[in-house]
Amino acid sequence: MRLPLCASARKAAMSEYDLDELAGELADFAPAAKKQATYTPQQERIIAGFEDIVRFYEEHGRVPQHGEGRDIFERLYAVRLDRLRAQQDSRDLLATFDQHGLLDEATAIAVDEVELDVDDLASELADLADGTDITQLRHVRSAEEKRAAEEIARRDKCHDFEKFKPLFEQVKQDLASGTRVTRPFELKAEIRPGAFFIVGGLISYVAEMDDIFTNAQGRTDARLRVVFDNGTESGMLMRSLQRQLHEDDAGRRITDPSPGPLFADRPEDGEAETGTIYVLRSKSEHPFVAEHREVVHKIGVTSGSVDTRISGAEKSSTYLLAGVDVVATCKIYGVNCQKLESLLHKVFAAAQLDLTIPDRFGHMVKPREWFVVPLPVINEAVERIRDRSITACSYSPTVGQLVRSPPGAA
Predict the structure, then answer these.
(1) Is 271 helix (H, G, I), strand (E, B) or coil?
(2) Domain segments of the chain: what residues?
(3) Strand order in the sheet with 196-199
(4) Phi and psi for 372 in degrees, rounded to 5?
(5) pLDDT tens by residue, 282-341
(6) How confident is the model at residue 185 (pLDDT cuts 50, 70, 90)?
(7) 50 φ, ψ to 5°?
(8) 3-state secondary structure of 310
(9) Alpha-carbon distances, residue 284 vs 289, 290, 300, 324, 376 (angstroms)
């Protein structure tokens, strides 16, 4: 006959029981645990990248699209989605996450129908085929670049467009009559209040410009109010407009209306040739001139022959007692040569060569018609004299280009 076990005896008996076996028996009564899918780090990054696209779709009700007018991140997502669609492994991996059918080939856009900026966007994405991170950018846009991209896309309705509408109509008439012409956009200095441009197929007008400032990258910039002939406007930065004009193959500046020919390739009927603008480069071996020969230029205007003007240069302190090369000339008609020369010298006054040399009699002289300025900027000044926009400009040695003259400058 077995007697009941006391508590201590029962505890000892249980210690002899196989606890692993007991746990196994209890597991039969527990609910089945869900198996957790395991992913490699690479797969987790692909999934995370796709979830960004899904969030975009849910927020905007459409798949991300390509195009210059799109936000930089939308364009990035569009490139990423194209790559995911093109890789079967990625499609298989993301099938359970694609509740909206974003990877469906029927919704895919043919690559040849999309203008992918490979250098600008695709190269920023890690290449999946190489096993790198699709969410990792090779080059992260600066805050300035992101802001510029946003400004390009953001245009508001111009609330006082009726005030500007007559200006656009007049510009179109001027272009038709030849009073104004279009020229390729070249330099940021061409962007100023009152200037007209063609960008993105629209005539744009710089209605306002705030004070010029230096941005975090050490570059000059200014906030603009730009009005477009379709009734919209944008409060973009000057560098944003500059970027658009450079990236647009059809981007042009529209010249100011000309009251008459200042100088041209040929004289008007009955108009006599006045003279020639000339730009010289010295052969002097003076240390400073020799070191900076490519940017040291003499700018002048003569009513006679340039060859006659520079004859005997080696004996004249005006020509730095050395021979010269003629690097540019431009014929002028119906213009006062002395006044035109004074105007050019005034524009480049800040870059006048500060050099004193002895003349052939030993007297120290300081030539005044030499300037430290690149030839392309001199050519731009000549073009600006042509369309009368030079009156609003002066040369800045700091930035190495023509800039808007300060208000009230003489």
Answers:
(1) coil
(2) 41-140, 148-254, 273-404
(3) 156-157, 232-234, 224-228, 202-209, 196-199, 252-254, 182-184
(4) -95, 90
(5) 999 888 998 999 999 999 998 888 888 898 888 888 888 889 999 888 888 777 788 888
(6) confident
(7) -70, -35
(8) helix
(9) 6, 7, 18, 8, 22
